[in-house]
Amino acid sequence: MTSEGGVELGRDSLVMLVARNSVTSFVLALAFIHFAALNMILPPSCPPECICLSQTQVLCNSGGLREIPVKLLPSTVEHLSLTRNHFPVIKSDAFAGLRFLRKLSLDGNNISIIKPFAFRGLPRLRELSIQQTPLATVAQFAFAGLQNITSIYLSHNKIKKVEGYSFAGTSNLKLLVLTNNPIIKIESNAFCGLTNVERLNFPSGVRILEPDAFNGLDTVGFLKLAFMDLPALKEGTFRGLTNVGVLSIQESDLGIIERDAFDGLTFIKNFYILNNKIDGIQELNLTQEQRIGYLKLQGNHILEIPRAETLNIGVDKLTVIANHFPCDCHIHALLEGPLANGRCQEEVTRGNLEASKDSTSMCWKMKPQISILLWWLFAVFGNFS
Q1: How many other CB atoms are there within 10 angstroms of residue 15's CB atom?
Q2: Three-class secondary structure of residue 12 per DSSP
Q3: Is the alpha carbon torsion for 250, 256, 260, 261 positive or negative?
Q4: Are 92 and 68 in contact (CB under 8 A)?
Q5: Are 269 and 246 in contact (CB under 8 A)?
Q6: Which domain holds residue 319?
Q7: What is the protein's membrane topology class (predicted)?
Q8: How far is CA 121 from CA 94, 124, 143, 153, in A?
Q9: 88: Cβ–Cβ under 8 A, 6 or more apart, which residues?
Q10: CA 88 to chain centre
Q11: DSSP letters along 249-269, please?
């Protein structure tokens, strides 16, 4: 009986053990269900000033924010709009942790300072918009390290100056918009690090292009410089600018084109100098080694006729049309350089123009016919290659 009783007792213990485990499992299952239900009912983390349309799209517009609520944002956010808030300063690493962010808008804020590496830690960011702010300076390294960004919109701000290395390491930028800014000065190496830009437009009113202003700007589809007011195109202004589809300098007061202004400019497919006022040309030196495919000089008002020996234009194709020169005793210099056609005007006018060297009075008497000649020369024979 003892053995039988012992056997019976073991069975009871086993039954009790199984019962206890069943209760424990049931309690755990209830707790798990309750926890899951709470997670389904409670909304994900979202700043109270924002609307989280999803875990990837967040709108914080007109929310009165004075700081960027990075810690309250979903770490998975891809599209973030922070327009019309109150961010006077964008600090370094301001968006650290939002590694999935692809599109960021900061339009309409009172941003006056962007600290170096403000957008570091955003490896997937493709589009950044900072427009309609009082931002006055694109500071050194402000947009540095944005390796995969394709578009930066900086129009309608108060930008007066672009400092050197502002975009260092931002190597895949396709579009940079700086229009509608009162930019006065572009410093040396301002765009160094941009290696594959499709289009770069500048606003009107630029007054200072420092030497090496475009150094390091490699592979640009379209670069337009218009409505500038410069005292001079200084030596080395375009040094280091390479692989450009179209470079257009137009509708500007260029002052004096100094010696070696275009030194270091290489591999330009189309180079246009259009409708500018040029006080004088110290030297226009474009060599075969610079690999410039097509140069077009049209509609420029050149106030002082350059000497033939200062002009060295070694391009594959050249068009000179409808440019305006002063009618004085140095007009003969046009026939000795690449700005003249060289087909038949030498046969017609060489004797007359040689005579103009001898006396100012003779030159004065010839002014009307020289003016007619110049008009005919550049209107009829201006295009050549």
Answers
A1: 10
A2: helix
A3: negative
A4: no
A5: yes
A6: 114-380
A7: Single-pass membrane protein
A8: 9, 9, 12, 20
A9: 110, 111, 112, 113
A10: 23
A11: EES-EEEEE-TTTTTT-EEEE
Q: Is 84 contained in some domain?
A: no
Give the whole-angstrom CA distance, residue 139 versus residue 121.
19
Residue 77 has pLDDT above 70, yes or no: yes
Q: What pLDDT sits at residue 305?
A: 83
Sign of the torsion angle spanned by Cα atoms 19, 23, 26, 28:
negative
Residue 76's pLDDT is 95
Kindly report the CATH number assigned to the domain that includes residue 144. 3.80.10.10
Confidence (pLDDT) at 352: 39
Q: Does 15 reside within a domain? A: no
- Using CB atoms within 10 Å of the CB of residue 321, give its burial: 0 to 12 exposed, 13 to 18 middle, 19+ buried: middle
Is residue 50 in some structural domain? Answer: no
Mean pLDDT taken over the chain: 81
Helices (H), the chain: 2-41, 345-355, 360-380
Is 125's pLDDT higher than 60? yes
- Rounded Cα–Cα distance for residues 163 and 170 (Å): 15
- Cα 161 to Cα 364: distance, rounded to the nearest angstrom: 47
Measured N-to-C along each axis, helices 345-355 and 360-380 cross at an angle, to the nearest 10 degrees, of: 160
Predicted TM-score (pTM) of the model is: 0.73
pLDDT score at 218: 85
Strand bridging mode 51-52 / 57-59: antiparallel
What whole-number distance in Å separates Cα of residue 89 and Cα of residue 135?
10
Question: 233-264: per-residue pLDDT in tens?
Answer: 999 999 999 999 999 999 999 999 999 999 99
Going by C-beta distance under 8 Å and a sequence separation of 6 or more, which residues neighbour residue 277?
252, 253, 254, 300, 301, 303
> What size, in residues, is the chain?
385
Tokens of residue 153, six digits = 């919109």
Q: Which two tokens stand for residue 124?
A: 């997937």
State the residue for tokens 């301002």.
Answer: 190
CB 251 within 8 A of CB 278: no
- Local structure of residue 304 (DSSP, 8 states): S
Per DSSP, 366 falls in state: H
Q: CA-to-CA distance for 128 and 112, rounded, in angstroms?
A: 17
Mean pLDDT of 123-152: 96
Inside any domain, residue 312: yes
One-letter amino acid of 332: H
